[in-house]
Amino acid sequence: MPPRSILHIDMDAFFASVEQRDHPELRGKPVLVGGDGPRGVVAAASYEARVFGCHSAMPSSIAKRLCPNAIFVKGSHGVYSTVSKQVFEILERFSPAIQPISVDEAFLDVTGSLHLFGSPTTIAIEIRKLVKQELNLTCSVGIAPNKFLAKLASDMNKPDGYTVITNETIQSTLDPLPVSRLWGVGKSTQRNLERLGVHTVAQLRGLPIETLTARLGDFGEKLYRLSRGIDDRPVRIDRGAKSISHEHTFETDLDNADEVRAIIARQAVDVASRLRKHERYAKTISIKVRFGDFETITRSTTLDNQTNETNTIHAAAKSLFDHWAKTFRPVRLIGVGLSQLTESPAEPGLFDNQSSTANKAVDQATDAIIAKFGKAALTRASTLKAKPQHGLHGPGSNPEDRPQ
């Protein structure tokens, strides 16, 4: 087998760049895609806005203080989806081995395409040229022997650039970097490593694997490998849904736990219905809670068997919330998510059949009514405590888009 050649393609400030492309009056100006209200959040920032420290996921109120002249745009998500498909169509010309990460980035394994299109660098240059010619947008590309290094490389020469990491340059590229640039190293792990006197990848590479595993467990072994540029993960050719979720941000913080429970019930109905629509089953159920000060927590549970039943999903989400709500405080955002999706369910247990059959009958009837008359036509009793809310964020899912 020849050495692997992996590209990581990352569209530059995707949402903001599309807005600037389609609206000439925005070009060269600091553009922020997102809501500009007191509860707004930045979805994307143009490079002109990034100079001031603005970035995605930042509260709009903070972005305004950093860049008072920023221009807020609500966003055109239908347009972004269309442009994303056009980008992926360009990538498919060079290799079928594509792993989408989000609407604006993907891994591309071109190992089997080199005899057709030339070197990995030649392919990367051609992709960048086609994106610019056909879509009037720019992208940055990382070229490397594996996914970790390719992702790292695509960030090194942004925007509108490319970077090559070869087997010969792996350590000279990695060693000077702070350990925070390694996948999975958050603030907690970084503090742990700093206690060991480790600040750079070179210092991390100098530690014995026994020291790392003693301090960090299995993750220590992963860091040992990443510090040497070792990553054996394949590019997964999978366009199916990776997760389905629904989130709601409130105009005013909810200080009543029962109201939050009612909204969780509504969200469980929504995500379960969409799960069945896409003929998927979920094994992991999670909730996301954000407070007024923007602190965010997530909690998840993995079931013994995959499910697409509303009652099972709701019970798991409610249990997660109830466990957390022992120390309840006002909530700014609540969300229910499903992951570990499969196309087939697990075999039912001996005592599961009767309850499962009854749940499926209820779910089928519910789906049929909603399909004919809309969501408002049917309400579960568990959702009745929720007051009408005008949220800023609606469903968050990726069954029809590229998986994240």
Mind explaining what this structure looks like?
This protein folds into three domains: 1-167, Reverse transcriptase/Diguanylate cyclase domain (Alpha-Beta Plaits, 2-Layer Sandwich); 171-226, 5' to 3' exonuclease, C-terminal subdomain (DNA polymerase, domain 1, Orthogonal Bundle), CATH 1.10.150.20; 243-397, Dna Ligase, domain 1, CATH 3.30.1490.100. Helix content is 39%, strand content 20%. The protein is built from 15 helices and 13 strands. Strands 5-6-1-7-8 form a five-stranded mixed sheet. Helix 4 (77-92) runs antiparallel to helix 6, helix 11 (209-216) crosses helix 12 and helix 13 packs antiparallel against helix 14 (310-324). Residues 347-354 and 388-404 have low confidence and may be disordered.
